[in-house]
Write a structure and sequence with these properties.
binds copper (II) ion, Cytochrome Bc1 Complex, Chain D, domain 2, alpha+beta, Immunoglobulin-like, 15% strand, 46% helix, elongated
């Protein structure tokens, strides 16, 4: 009796804890989402079918078990029956699960086959995972951009209340049209990531050196959010995915805007001289988006993996050396080359920022044209090296 009382008391505690914490779980849903693509609908249907089959099996198995426990309890049947083995019964309970498995496997195979059929796509987007951001390239439109987490640093540091889409918001979302088959070519540039958008029924590993494929044909206009689903380092939780599905007409407008924007960005006043405060303001933003993941907001780094920038000898040394290092990265370390990721004015501002923040009072101001000059010199060296390799080969 005391044991029963103990169990009842524990059960009461468990239930009250569950009730108290229930409101905290209200934002989460337990089940899969039916999603917004034909594949995600199929996956959901398959999942629910398997779930209901499991429920029936559960009911039958537990039904028989409890029936046997109650009806054949010792007080009713003090003397146990002596039979063992029943060929018919054994064959039946081997064949029924087999049939159930076949019933589940046939539609599952059809759906998996459909998921991998990327033929007849109308738009191809290459998705590349980086520590810790995504890059999207529209292969036939000549549009490419990086997509960084845009949740403000103060929210991440608990200095401000968290926003509605905390850690699920980006500066440049992926834009796709509804009603068109979009093929994704998924890869990575450093370590293994995984591109996961639950509403599309897509969760595909992004592996350096491999290209995996996925596709989606979205049926509803809207904003869909996902995350990297493969533990990829310290900033794994800070590389969300945001996809905006728009009508075909809006998509055409967006493409036109992006193409023009790209041309403008290329020819954007490379000789403009920025003021120190402009550079620092722009630099803080670029630093928090691209550098703070490793070197930390306060420039303290995470030694020995990510060096502190406060008092760092490269940051306090010649400006050209720092520009060169940021452009080409440091091989064998976590420092990637930023030449492709950031524009000259972003690099100039972030380098100005590191040279004047964290107690690094160099008073240096770096202008975009200085970055452009070193970028060009590096490019010439790389091309010369490539050419001489080709000649030698
Ligand atoms: Cu990742």
């Amino acid at each position: 009796m005391t044991l029963l009382k103990k169990i009842a008391a524990r059960l009461m505690v468990f239930v009250s804890l569950l009730l108290v914490s229930w409101h905290a779980c209200a934002d989460y849903q337990l089940n899969m989402t039916p999603g917004v693509t034909s594949v995600s609908h199929d996956v959901y249907l398959l999942h629910m079918t398997a779930f209901y089959i499991s429920l029936v099996i559960c009911a039958v198995v537990f039904g028989v078990m409890f029936y046997a426990i109650i009806m054949h309890r010792k007080s009713r049947h003090p003397v146990a029956s002596k039979f063992d083995q029943h060929l018919g019964l054994e064959i039946t309970w081997a064949i029924i699960p087999l049939l159930i498995l076949i019933i589940i496997a046939i539609p599952a195979t059809i759906v998996v086959h459909r998921m991998n059929d990327t033929r007849n796509s109308e738009l191809v987007i290459k998705v590349t995972g980086y520590q810790w951001k995504w890059r999207y390239e529209y292969l036939n439109q000549g549009i490419s951009f990086y997509s960084n987490l845009s949740t403000p640093m103060n929210q991440r540091a608990n200095l401000e209340p968290k926003g509605e889409h905390y850690l699920l918001e980006v500066d440049n979302p992926l834009v796709i049209p509804v009603g068109e088959k979009v093929r994704f070519l998924i890869t990575a540039n450093d370590v293994i990531h995984s591109w996961w958008v639950p509403a599309f029924g897509v969760k595909t590993d992004a592996i350096p050196g491999f290209i995996h494929e996925a596709w989606a044909e979205v049926d509803t206009v809207g904003t869909y959010r996902g995350q990297c689903a493969e533990l990829c380092g310290a900033g794994h939780g800070f590389m969300p995915i945001v996809v905006i599905a728009v009508s075909k007409a809006d998509f055409a407008k967006w493409v036109a805007k992006m193409t023009v924007g790209h041309v403008n960005a290329e020819s954007m006043l490379p000789n403009k001289i920025w003021s120190k405060s402009e550079l620092l303001q722009k630099g803080r933003q670029a630093y928090n988006q691209n550098c703070a993941g490793c070197h930390q907001t306060e420039g303290t780094g995470l030694p020995p993996l990510y060096p502190a920038l406060s008092g760092d000898k490269v940051v306090l040394g010649a400006a050209d050396s720092e520009i060169k290092l940021v452009l080409s990265g440091v091989s064998g370390t976590g420092m990637p080359p930023f030449a492709e990721q950031l524009s000259d004015d972003e690099l100039a501002s972030v380098i100005t920022y590191t040279r004047n923040e964290f107690g690094n009072n160099t008073h240096d101001i770096i202008q975009p044209y200085q970055v452009a000059k070193i970028r060009e010199a590096l490019l010439t060296t790389t091309n010369t090296a490539k050419n001489s390799l080709e000649v030698n080969a």
